[in-house]
Amino acid sequence: MPNSISASKSRSPFSWLRRQAFRKHHWVSDVRQAESSFASLSDAALKLQSDSIQERYSASTRGERDRVRVEFAGLIAECVFRSLGFRLFDVQVQAIGAASTGAIIEMQTGEGKTVVTGCIAALRALDVPSVHVSTTNSYLADRDCDELAPIFDRLGLTHGKLPQQSDEAASRLAYRKQIVYGPGYQFGFDFLHDQMKLRQQKKRRLGREVINRIRGAERGNKLIQPADHHVAIIDEADSVMIDEAMTPLIISLPGKQTQDPVPYQLAKKIAAELVEGTDYTIELPEKSIEVTESANLAAHEKIAHHRDLLLARPWKSYISNAIRAQIILQRDVDYVVLDDKIQLVDQYTGRILPDRTWQSGLHQAVEVKENLTMQPARESTTTITRQRYLQMYDSIAGLTGTAQSVADEFKDIYQCPIVVIPTNRKSQRHIERTRFFTDAASKAKAIADDVWHRHQKDQPILIGTRTIRESLEIDQALRSRNINAVLLNGVQDGDEAEIVSQAGRAGAITIATNMAGRGTDIKPDDRALAAGGLHVVAVSPNESPRIDRQLIGRGARQGQPGSAQFFVAADDSLLTDFQSSLPNQIKRDAGADGESRDFSRELRALQQSIEQRNFDRRQQMILRDRWMDSVRESIEKD
């Protein structure tokens, strides 16, 4: 499998737009003209026009298809108006055309990416049997598909969404639709499930295969996905295609053997006696653990009399896992305990992943740490990275509010250019100076003070945190000032849609992890706008400024007033994990209240160095994959 999409593949049918470097003014004016021609038609006549255009497109020559696409884009725009009650902005029409060429579209938050995504899917449905629309989670997939369904219905396009619960029959039915919505990971997992089935089918005897064919039960009938991957439209493209590109999607099954809890309990006890710096070291920022030879020998001596001890892996792995569980992995940061079970937290979104587990005994080590009943270990059966799965599609398009800083990676890995779409109205967002503090406590107090003052004038406030633990700490700081906030953190998430819809009301205070950082729309009411619009508080900086920009983009949308401010503490994980000198500088220059001077320049330099490091790591992984591909191809030839 290649590590970049072959240049020989047709990235999209819009060759004339490529040759002319996407002449946006021609495209927009032509679509607008086509749109106006449908305005006087009845809904029934509009449906007949849609059927006619699709039939003419199928029968037309390549040159004729360009004109038919423009006509269909105009029809889509008219259907948007009749279904949702508003006309597309020119910049949205521009984005639809650009994304349909196989580009990554940078649109600022609040500019209507949801409806644009649906329009792109409808336009690409002219060319292929099925278009996959990939969202960051199932909530957004359901919401977007339901919201845009009236448009697809008017166009006569079938549409479906992947079920949230495992239901192969429902999934197969959804994949037969022309437009399929689902969380990106679910498309990948369905592919992996099919690969497992195909491997099992290959093990069957030839006679069984012949009998199945005679009965009409051919092997493909039980697969979830169609064999071909035509078009994928990726929401939050930078997060999915870059940040999480090398994160493996893994299907694991319960292990055949029940593991003995005693080795994990012994390892926990021994690890607690080890001293960092003497018996082991933790290399930052990778957080790799190196146990000294003397500590390993001592650990082996302590189990010498346990002759009946059943080990599933080398003893030093138990020790390393115990150290990682005790020292590195933090409750309400990396995982939560719900229903007496360890549940992992997605570090990109802040969402809880109830069906995910750590591998190689680490999950059991964390269970022992939390004094929980140890669950059977799971064994990985099949895996694929998101990047390699996406490379199976003939054409990819994507949308995000932050793409320019990773434009080279989009081009090199996916051969997708970046097209920046201007905002429909001039932004009124006011970003206040970043404030720096010696520790989390002084930072939390300053945030509580600032929130109290803003709350007096009924300004709505969204407080964004990196972790669940941080959200709970800020909530406690606000309570100390008799300020009540609504929590949206994956544990106390309630009805996410309801919480988000109320976050723009005058006087509303919402604390949210990254789960509200992407894909949600907070609409301030008139009183809130009069009070200054939504104010966004960023409690801690992220590794990538792109994620920070996504958070502050929750406010001041569509030319509305709004503001944002970042708060940084010397003990924030971003500063401490990367062995920066910045924490000491902040502490040295701090006043009696714990607040220091402005270190924004130094913070930006740190984030840039981290982004470069992450880029280098991704490039190394790509090179490794290419080497593995060459080895695999060589073996297959032999």
UniProtKB/TrEMBL annotation:
InterPro entries associated with the record: Helicase_C-like, P-loop_NTPase, SecA, SecA_DEAD, SecA_motor_DEAD, SecA_preprotein_X-link_dom, SecA_SF2_C, SecA_X-link_sf
PROSITE patterns assigned: HELICASE_CTER, SECA_MOTOR_DEAD
Keywords: ATP-binding, Cell membrane, Cytoplasm, Membrane, Nucleotide-binding, Protein transport, Translocase, Translocation, Transport
Record domain SecA family profile: where: 6-599
GO cellular component annotations of the record: cell envelope Sec protein transport complex; cytosol; plasma membrane
GO biological process, one term: protein import
Domain Helicase C-terminal, residue spans: 439-607
Pfam families assigned to the protein according to its UniProt record, in alphabetical order: P-loop_SecA, SecA_DEAD, SecA_PP_bind
Top-level lineage group: Bacteria
GO MF annotations, alphabetized: ATP binding
PANTHER family registered for this protein in UniProt: CHLOROPLAST PROTEIN-TRANSPORTING ATPASE, SECA INNER MEMBRANE COMPONENT OF SEC PROTEIN SECRETION SYSTEM
Protein name: Preprotein translocase subunit SecA
Organism per entry: Mariniblastus fucicola
